[in-house]
Amino acid sequence: MATLRDIKNRIAGVTSIEKITSAMKMVSSIKSKRAQKQTESARPYSKTIADVLHLMIATDNSLLLEHRFFKPRIDVKNIVIIVIAGDKGMCGSFNSNLIKSVDSYLSSEFNKNYPDATPHIITIGTKPTEYYKKKKYNVIGTFPNAFQKTDFSIVTSIRELFIKNYDIGNVDRVEIFYSHFINLMKQEPTKLQVLPIEFDIEDSNYQIKNTYNYILDSDKKIIFETLINQYLNANIWGPILESNAAENSARLLAMDKATQNARELIKELELQYNNARQSAITTEMLEIVGGAEALSKG
Length: 298
Fold this sequence. Notes:
Layout: H1 4-59, H2 62-66, E1 78-84, H3 94-107, H4 109-113, E2 118-124, H5 126-133, E3 138-143, H6 153-160, H7 163-167, E4 173-183, E5 186-195, H8 220-297
Parallel strand pairs: 1-2, 1-4, 2-3
Antiparallel strand pairs: 4-5
Helix pairs in contact: 1-8
């Protein structure tokens, strides 16, 4: 049976943990709000780029048919898979859920759809970097500590790892796995195809409802090429921001739950301490009374 000193030490230890998790919850709350704001600010830009591309393609279908980024490869041999997860732990199952979804894809759907293809991994975040370094996959690029300070320059570094090889045919497909930020309570592992670009000009979301007369200040193909590059950048930067918001939200929830559990445990330990203390006092009083009776009889 635990002594009063043991229970008191446990209360002190759990109290220290409660202070740490409470502080981490406050920090995560601030980071989560900032990351959520960045994510929500980037979404309209990505959608606008897609809208303008659809508009140009709808008015001139040859732009889509002729551009190299829209042509699917028949014989797929090499696929670059970009895995975006967190830099740190203590965020519940956030990192493990994302990595499990990638592993599940590689072991089932990937082997089924591309039996002759080889995956090449690019990791963004410390956790996926540590995980895939231990695996048999060919890791062609790592970006640990990517979320210590989210900077757009990382997009250029990531593109350099695959864009030239895609142009010359050494890479046939590029995909991104990230955690899509839905709300504070929900983050969903998501797969996004980056190259070749999939565009459905019949998509009802992009139907042109009004007719406008546009004056292009430069050659149409030059404008289209610039938009394509911006679209690719948005499809890399967007998932990074989404994952950052999802990670901080997951850590906020995890630290909130840990703080609640610590407080509940402290209450239980305090009750256990009071019961043990009361029992000890009662035992001492019985011993005193018994001793006094023995003396009086003697």
